[in-house]
Amino acid sequence: MTPTTALYVPGSRPDRFDKAVESGADAVVLDLEDAVAADEKTQAREAVATWLEGRAASAVEVWVRVNHDDALLADDIAAVASAGITGWWLPKTERAEDVDRVVELTRAARGSDPLPVSPLIESGAGVAAAVQIAGAAHVCFLQLGEQDLAADLGITPQPEGHELAYARGAVVVASAAAGLEPPLGAVSIETVDLESLAADTRRLRHAGFHGRGCIHPRQLAPVAAVFEPSAEERAWAHEILSLMERGAVATDARGHLVDEAVARRARRILGHIGPPGTR
After folding, report:
1. SS3 at position 27
2. How far apart are CA 46 and CA 165, in angstroms?
3. Whether residues 142 and 254 fall in one domain
4. With 0-12 CB in 10 A as exposed, 13-18 as middle and 19+ as buried, what is 231?
5. C-alpha to C-alpha distance for 149 and 169, rounded to whole angstroms
6. In a domain? residue 278
């Protein structure tokens, strides 16, 4: 399942690893890419590997964001693939072959035991290839790296995010077409105005994303709250499913038509639904 909150931690800051796991996030992302300076890559890789080998069991997912550069990618995977991680976050994914390369390197390090891969689509080429990327083996859910994407496209996103609507839609559609979990929403640089963060996160939820990457612990609560169904939503969902048990088509208390398409939304609200391809 796509995590609701995924907290990034620089791989060069092992002093923060345990704190991140205890922060309340559903997932922790140990970052070996953008958050680590070029001259600290080796040190960060070793710190992540050491911590993973000694960490206590936890229900919190632990992902590693590797480097896209092939030489660094190979070193990253070789160093930590045997440790107890949930899977890989693959930045700057532009082709299905990028995912295949991660799977190949993982098998070399772990034998025949691959790990889930979550590709970050961060360029026009990646958006154009979203369907192929989503269909690659071992992909679990997609992500959109909106800061890098905006730079690649030469656009300046405004608060409402309309400039990114096409790319967001492409990733959501590709995920559904491939039967994947819903894509994870991109990180926000807003760590002070939490009402603004929540409003932006609601737009992502309405657009078909589930959850969001976070860069600061104070972002966790407002993001989690957005994706937690309200009491009204749950009551509506229970009403819809109760009606559907009586027949294939019905009318709810407001006179709205209720059919299987409406029931699918109700099941999602209540968490009674798998990836789009299993509906």
Report:
1. strand
2. 39
3. no
4. exposed
5. 14
6. no
Task: Please name the residue that has the structure tokens 């080796």.
Answer: 42
Minimum mean pLDDT among 26-30, 184-188, 258-262: which range? 258-262
Tokens of 212: 């969001």
Does residue 241 share a domain with residue 185?
no
Tokens of 257: 């038509």
The upper half-sphere exposure of residue 8, i.e. CA atoms within 13 Å in the direction of its Cβ, equals: 20
- Region for 161 from its dihedrals, namely left if φ exceeds 0, alpha if ψ lies in -120 to 50, beta otherwise: left
Token look-up 């693939």 returns 81
How far is residue 54's CA from residue 73's CA, in Å, rounded to a whole number? 23
Provide the domain limits for residue 253. Answer: 231-273
Instruction: Give me the helices (H) in the chain, please.
Output: 17-21, 41-54, 70-80, 96-110, 124-128, 130-134, 146-153, 165-177, 194-206, 220-227, 231-244, 260-270
Asked, for residue 169, whether it belongs to a domain, the answer is: yes
Q: What is the pLDDT of residues 172-228, one digit of tens each?
A: 999 999 999 999 999 999 999 999 999 999 999 999 999 999 999 999 999 999 998
Count of structural domains, the chain? 2
Mean pLDDT score, 261-278: 66
Burial of 45 (0-12, 13-18, 19+ CB in 10 A): buried
pTM summary value: 0.88
